[in-house]
Structure formats: structure tokens, C-alpha cells
Write a structure and sequence with these properties.
The structure holds 2 protein chains of 2 kinds.
Chain A (H helix, E strand, L loop, with lengths): L2 H26 L5 H19 L1 H11 L4 H49 L30
Chain B lengths: L7 E7 L6 H11 L3 E7 L6 H8 L3 E4 L5 H15 L4 E4 L11 H9 L5 E5 L11 H18 L11 E4 H9 L6 H11 L4 E5 L17 H17 L9
Parallel strand pairs in B: 1-2, 1-4, 2-3, 5-7
Antiparallel strand pairs in B: 4-6, 5-6
Helix pairs in contact in B: 1-2, 3-6, 5-8, 7-8
The chains are: A mainly alpha, B alpha/beta.
């Protein structure tokens, strides 16, 4: 092992420890959801394991035909990053749909609310029918529920 | 406690429960008449909402998107807080929870002995059938819960729970979405709320399909355990801490 490769190994170990510390801190401050905390902890632990146990990395490097083992580490990390990004792309797609649904819902509710509140009819539109699509049938017992 | 009679709310989260929800609401109203009922329709694709409105016995919130049980129940908590309810009970739409047990459930809260009461299927009463795997799971969770919050909880996935006003205020802001029932137990414990568990009887599902596939129980258990551990390590919320 040359000085260079020991140096990179030390850097990798420190880096993964810092990453784990950061993830744990974010977890404690309630900034990360449970599932992502788990994902990142797993990633950090894997990174740490490979950094500490050099032989694992060397064996993997031979397996995939890479001469310089730390390059294999970068490859693993890079693949991990791609998977994470893909995962987040899926997540963002789902969230866009949800946000769109919410925006539409809010807009429709606003219109209804304006229709209920205003005494002036909207020009060029027929006046709203007395029964609205949403009707909250609340039967109070000992209490009155304000809408 | 207020001077006048306490205002009680039953929160019934529902997702595609058109078969069972009508009967559930009617039974609930008959056996727990002091309760206002709120059904939180979690983006059902069937006629759940209509069925409830037709009974005329409950208010309905139709969520514009599906949020899952955590989000749906939390909507109920927000409603309870904003409308000034003193106590809220969580009640399943599928008929598994027995309305006659509600009185037992709310007693410790009304007496001021607990902030949250959990209705446990596994504490003594034998009418609920469960598999061997489930029983192992219960034992594991009981151990984990007693380690983390110093309380031996036997049924932390039960959705049959009662909450007082302080708990409702807290949970309106902080309620987990992944595995809400077990995670909330830890969350409440960590933030200084008094939790009591009482034995209740429950029934089999009355209709529809359960959303927890029993074949994936072991995988589910591992994920829940990890989620619980993570929840444990979160900082308690200072302003809301009891």
C-alpha cells in the first residue's frame, strides 16, 4: 500500500463518519423522515465499512476489473448517487401530481366560497344553484359545530 | 376539564370502506351517543363518503388526495383541536372496534389519569384471534417499548385510542406518517405524555380487504422497529413538552 492509498482511505473513513454524524443530527432535529434517515444511515455505514475494510474494496475492484481500488469506491458511490437521484425523481413526480391536485382543490373551494359569500352574481354566469356539491351534514348533539 | 360537559369527538378514518362504514357509524352513534362523529375520507375511490352522508349521523372530511392513515387521522386531530374538543377517540371504519368499549377507553382520560389511552387486544381478553407470528411480534414490541419509554405496551398497532386536549394539540402538529400507531406511542412517551393501556375486545373485519398483508408481517415488523428506534432518537419538542 502506498502513502497515497492510505491517505485516501483515511479521508474516506473520516468522510463517512462525518456523513453519519450529519444524518444523525438531522434525524434528531426532525428534518429527515424515517425512511430517508434509514436509507442514508445504511449508505453511510456501507461507505464506512468499505473504507475501513480495505480488503473488501480490493476484492471488488479485482472483480469488476479496476486497477486502482479507490476508483472502485467512487464507482460504488456514484452508482448509489444515481439510484438516489432516480428515487427522488420518482418522488418529485408523485409530489407534483399531489400539489396539482391540491392547487385545483383550493381554487375550486375558493370559487365556491366566493359564491356562498357574495350577494352579487358573477357577470355572464348563471347564479349558483341553492344546493352546493359539498354539503357537510353535521348533526350536533351536545355541541354546535361551526362550519 | 371545563365546567360544562366535555365535548367528545370520534375520529373515523376511512379508505374504501363503503361496505362497513354505514353500520359502523350507526352502531357508534347508538352505543356512544355523547360523541360527535367525524369521518375522514382518505381519498376513497368508492362511495364511502356518500354512504356516511346518507346516515346523516356524521360530519365528513373528503381529503383531496390520499394521505395514508397517519395523515388522515391527523386531519381529525386538527379538526378536534380547532373545534375545541376536550377528548377525541380514534375508531376504525371497518367494524373491528366495538362501540361498547368506548366508555371504558375514555374513563382514564376523563378522570385526568392519562393523556392518551390505548385499547389493547392482547391484554388479557381472548376474543381476538391472532397467529403465532403475531404473538412473537407482540412480545418483541412490548420489550422495545418498555426499554424506550419505560412502559410495557402490549398492542402498539391498535388504532383504538383516546386522546385528551393536550395530546390532540401536540399530535395535530407532530404525527408520524409511515407507521403512525407504534411511532406515536414512542413520540408521546418521549414528550412527556402519560399513556395508559387498557384491555378491550375487538372483532374480525366486517367487510372489505385489510390494508396490511399478513404475509409481509415479518418485513413490516423490522421496518416498524427501525422507525420506532429512529423516532426515539428525535429531540423532544420543548414548547409542547408536558
Amino acid at each position: 500500500m502506498t502513502v497515497q492509498t492510505i491517505r485516501i482511505q483515511i479521508i474516506a473513513v473520516i468522510g463517512s463518519l462525518l456523513l453519519l454524524a450529519l444524518v444523525i443530527e438531522l434525524l434528531r432535529k426532525r428534518k429527515l423522515k424515517e425512511e430517508y434517515t434509514l436509507l442514508w444511515l445504511l449508505g453511510g455505514v456501507t461507505f464506512l465499512t468499505i473504507s475501513v475494510f480495505r480488503s473488501l474494496l480490493d476484492r471488488f475492484a479485482v472483480l469488476i476489473g479496476v486497477d486502482y481500488p479507490p476508483a472502485a469506491l467512487f464507482l460504488i458511490l456514484l452508482m448509489g448517487v444515481f439510484l438516489m437521484l432516480l428515487h427522488f425523481s420518482l418522488l418529485f413526480s408523485k409530489m407534483s401530481e399531489k400539489i396539482k391536485a391540491l392547487a385545483q382543490e383550493v381554487a375550486l373551494l375558493k370559487l365556491e366560497l366566493d359564491g356562498v359569500r357574495s350577494t352579487v352574481s358573477i357577470p355572464n354566469m348563471s347564479s349558483p344553484a341553492p344546493t352546493e356539491p359539498f354539503e357537510a351534514t353535521i348533526i350536533p348533539t351536545s355541541s354546535t359545530l361551526p362550519l | 376539564m371545563t365546567n360544562s360537559a366535555p365535548r367528545l369527538l370520534a375520529i373515523v378514518p376511512a379508505f374504501n370502506e363503503e361496505e362497513a362504514i354505514g353500520a359502523t357509524i350507526r352502531t357508534l352513534k347508538a352505543n356512544a351517543p355523547g360523541f360527535d362523529i367525524l369521518v375522514v375520507n382518505d381519498g376513497s375511490k368508492d362511495h364511502t363518503s356518500q354512504v356516511v352522508r346518507e346516515t346523516g349521523l356524521a360530519a365528513v372530511i373528503d381529503l383531496p388526495i390520499n394521505l395514508g392513515i397517519g395523515g388522515a387521522v391527523q386531519t381529525g386531530f386538527k379538526y378536534a383541536t380547532r373545534q375545541g374538543y376536550d377528548l377525541a377517540v380514534q375508531f376504525d371504519a371497518d367494524g373491528q372496534h366495538l362501540a361498547e368499549e368506548v366508555e371504558k377507553l375514555i374513563a382514564p382520560v376523563l378522570a385526568g389519569a392519562a393523556d392518551v389511552v390505548l385499547g389493547s387486544r392482547f391484554l388479557g381478553v381472548d376474543t381476538y384471534k391472532s397467529t403465532a407470528l403475531r404473538r412473537v411480534g407482540i412480545r418483541i414490541f412490548r420489550l422495545v417499548n418498555s426499554l424506550l419509554i419505560k412502559q410495557s405496551i402490549t398492542d402498539n398497532t391498535s388504532g383504538f385510542r383516546a386522546y385528551n386536549r393536550q395530546a390532540l394539540e401536540f399530535l395535530s402538529e407532530y404525527y408520524p406518517s409511515d407507521y403512525p400507531e407504534p411511532e406515536a406511542v414512542i413520540l408521546l412517551g418521549r414528550n412527556g405524555f402519560t399513556i395508559r393501556e387498557i384491555a378491550v375486545a375487538m372483532q374480525e373485519r366486517q367487510g372489505g380487504v385489510t390494508s396490511i398483508n399478513l404475509r409481509r408481517s415479518a418485513y413490516y415488523m423490522v421496518k416498524v422497529l427501525l422507525a420506532i428506534i429512529i423516532t426515539y432518537f428525535r429531540d423532544p419538542i420543548p414548547q409542547m413538552r408536558r
